[in-house]
Design brief:
alpha+beta, Rossmann fold, D-amino Acid Aminotransferase, Chain A, domain 1, Dna Ligase, domain 1, five-stranded antiparallel beta sheet, four-stranded parallel beta sheet, globular
């Protein structure tokens, strides 16, 4: 088989390059020629069927899309390529407000979430009266998230009304926001479940003993291998099915009596850490699953 691994052309860090190497190593193991291309190499040209460098790539069996350039993913789907994950699934997971909206009414437990009203970039918020509704609905501390963000960097905690307004004024021009109830039992701890198809293939427990409410490793968190309960595995798999994902990293919080609560679903979950702590090759599982899907659909 021949395939493309599409990544972001401007995200050049060792952390991501190691991930791409894992994919290429796994592809070789399964006799797949995996050619790495960046999104700036494959430009969208609406009136052309040639994808890049004026050369058609019709002999590619599938595309592993490891970026959030949703427009490009959709363009490639329009040209008839098999794209994993799909453009729609990537878009839903990239926007945290959409993730919660799509999981709504599914029976999946999530933090109570309020989505900030939409405004226009050249106008912004001319008043902040809507925050009164947020304060009435959610008790402090309140979690504020930019809907687009990774590694816990765009997640904030407001301990009072003054902090809430300060955070909103500072960050609302960058991205849409959501407001969530704080799950105190899960302070500084969560679990990441790596799902491929309909199976949890690896899990890790993340914890932060420095006092930070976020468990992300990039914020000083630590990790250890974890064996999920059936309830935790089931909720992760169900979330992925609803969102149309072939693979994903699902982050769960601990509610009352450790009831699993879906925090986020990551279509392009960085899996180097969970691979190291579990000893399981996530990239092997992903490549093998895609191969099987392509064969089944041919």
């Amino acid at each position: 088989m021949k395939a493309l691994l599409i990544v972001n052309g401007f995200l050049n860090t060792q952390k991501f390059e190691e991930l791409y190497e894992m994919f290429q190593k796994s592809a070789k193991k399964f006799s797949v020629v995996l050619d790495l291309k960046t999104n700036d190499e494959i430009m969208i040209d609406i009136n052309s069927e040639n994808v890049y460098e004026n050369k058609a790539i019709n002999d590619v069996d599938f595309i592993l899309f490891w970026d959030k350039d949703v427009k490009l993913a959709r363009y490639l789907e329009n040209l008839g390529f098999k794209v994993f994950n799909s453009a729609k699934s990537i878009a839903i997971c990239d926007d945290k407000s959409l993730t919660h909206l799509y999981l709504m009414n599914s029976g999946i437990k999530m933090p109570r979430t309020i989505v900030a009203p939409m405004t226009y970039a050249n106008i912004g918020y001319t008043n902040y009266d809507y925050l009164e509704k947020v304060k009435k609905a959610l008790a402090f501390p309140i979690i504020v998230k930019e809907v687009f963000g990774s590694f816990g960097r765009q997640v904030y905690m407001a301990s009072n009304a003054t902090e809430l307004e300060t955070i909103v004024k500072k960050h609302s021009d960058k991205s849409s926001l959501i407001f969530q109830e704080y799950i105190s039992r899960s302070k500084g701890r969560d679990i990441r479940l790596q799902v491929v198809k309909d199976k949890v293939v690896a899990s890790m427990y993340r914890y932060n003993d420095s006092g930070d409410f976020r468990a992300n490793l990039s914020n000083g968190g630590k990790m250890k291998n974890y064996s999920p309960t059936k309830e935790e595995a089931d909720i992760a798999i169900k979330s992925c099915k609803i969102l149309g994902l072939d693979f994903a990293g699902v982050d769960l919080l601990f509610g009352e009596e450790d009831q699993p609560i879906v925090c986020e679903v990551n279509s392009n979950a960085h899996f180097k850490n969970i691979t190291e702590v579990s000893g399981i090759s996530i990239s092997d599982y992903i490549i093998e699953h895609i191969i099987n899907q392509v064969k089944e659909n041919n």
